[in-house]
Amino acid sequence: MRDRLIQLIYDKAFRYSEKPIFKLVSGRMSNYYFNCKTVTLHPEGMYLIGNIIFDMIKDLSVSGIGGLTLGADPVANAVAYTSYLKQKPIEAFVVRKTAKAHGTMQWIEGNVKAGDNVIIVDDVITTGKSTIEAIARAREAGLNIIKVIALVDRQEGGFENIMENLKGIKVDYKLVEVVVTRDDVMALYR
């Protein structure tokens, strides 16, 4: 499944240019770009992502999975759906970029509550900023982050920044994991 996911990411989400023409969220220009929504919103992509990540977390005691909207939403939804099919339901939740301006004015949407063990997901990490923001909002809501999973790691320091942000959490498994790296995709490109 992972090999097929790498191929799908390469075919649908990856773009490369000899010159740095892609503007990243940070404002920096890059030679390559991952638009993972073309995979996370694709039927086969959802199936693969849901199964791969569920297999990574199935033995953990976890109530919810989510991250910063919009990149994390289809990833969390795919895993939640798969978890139900595999008879170990995990709630999907959404971390807003800004608090809701009316009603409960909350940052997090879904059926998770303070004290729940959750997994933070993201579609792509570069610097780790959006993942770290989701971690901060989840902590403010009293959620216990027990794992972080990124679909694609651009291998530009984001993984390390996230690890630094989670310093002090002691677990007997990998706290931060990635499904696919830039190197995996570049190997297909070459």
Q: What would you note in describing this structure?
A:
With 190 residues, the protein is α/β, with parallel strands linked by helices. It has a domain at 49-180: Rossmann fold. Helix content is 38%, strand content 25%. It has seven helices and ten strands. The strands form three sheets. It has a six-stranded mixed sheet, with helices on both faces. A two-stranded antiparallel sheet has the order 1-4. The chain has a two-stranded antiparallel ribbon with strand order 2-3. Strand 2 and strand 3 form a beta hairpin. The mean pLDDT is 95.
In short, what is this structure?
This protein has 190 residues and is of the alpha/beta class. The chain has a domain of 132 residues: Rossmann fold (3-Layer(aba) Sandwich).
Q: How many beta-strand segments?
A: 10
Rounded to an integer in angstroms, the radius of gyration calculated over CA atoms is: 16 Å
* Top-tier CATH class of the domain at 49-180: Alpha Beta
For the residues shown, what is the average pLDDT?
A: 95
The end-to-end span amounts to: 21 Å
Low-confidence stretches: none
Largest sheet: 6 strands, mixed
Strand content: 25-35%
Strand order of the largest sheet: 7-6-5-8-9-10
- CATH fold label of the domain at 49-180: Rossmann fold
Counted by DSSP, the helix tally is 7
Compressed to H and E, one letter per element, the order equals: HEEEEHHEHEEEHEHEH
CATH architecture of the domain at 49-180: 3-Layer(aba) Sandwich
Q: Which structural class should the secondary elements be placed in? A: alpha/beta
**Overall helicity:** 25-40%
Q: What general outline do the C-alpha atoms trace?
A: globular
